[in-house]
Amino acid sequence: MSTHVGDVYSATCPCRPILDLLADKWSALIIGALEHGPLRFGALKARLQGVSPKVLTAALRRLESGGFLTRTVLPAVPLHVEYELTELGRGASEPLAALRNWVEANIDQFGSATER
Q1: Pick from 101, 100, 65, 64: nearest CA to 85
Q2: Closest Cα partner for 116 from 31, 25, 28, 29?
Q3: Pairing relationship of beta strands 39-40 and 80-85 according to DSSP bridges
Q4: Using one digit for the tens of pLDDT, what is the confidence trace for 16-65?
Q5: I need a surface site. Which of 29, 50, 88, 116 has the fewest CB within 10 A?
Q6: Alpha carbon distance 50, 66 (integer Å)
Q7: The whole model's pTM is what?
Q8: CA distance 99 to 102
Q9: DSSP-assigned letter for residue 116
Q10: Which CA distances in Å does 106 have to 9, 41, 61, 94, 96?
Q11: CB atoms < 10 A from the CB of 32, how many?
């Protein structure tokens, strides 16, 4: 296990790309959607209303590259692909769930930020 201590306020901190990835709306929602088990692409797309296939694919690839989820190709005709959180992804899901819950609980207090 690494003993490095990051400083996300430092421009050179290697934590910054991970923070950027996890702070992304679609990443946070994908991780939340996968909290209860693996899902196929179509089920993820249906759960994440408003995401385009291109954006979903890009976000899934970034999360897989970051070690937050695995992509498993299941033998079927046509091929089926499932996405599942890794241990790292499950660890990230806890603080992201707290953030999602806080946003939902405080939605009425955000004013013009929600009027897009």
Answers
A1: 64
A2: 25
A3: antiparallel
A4: 999 999 999 999 999 999 999 999 999 999 999 999 999 999 999 999 99
A5: 116
A6: 24
A7: 0.87
A8: 5
A9: -
A10: 27, 30, 31, 19, 15
A11: 18
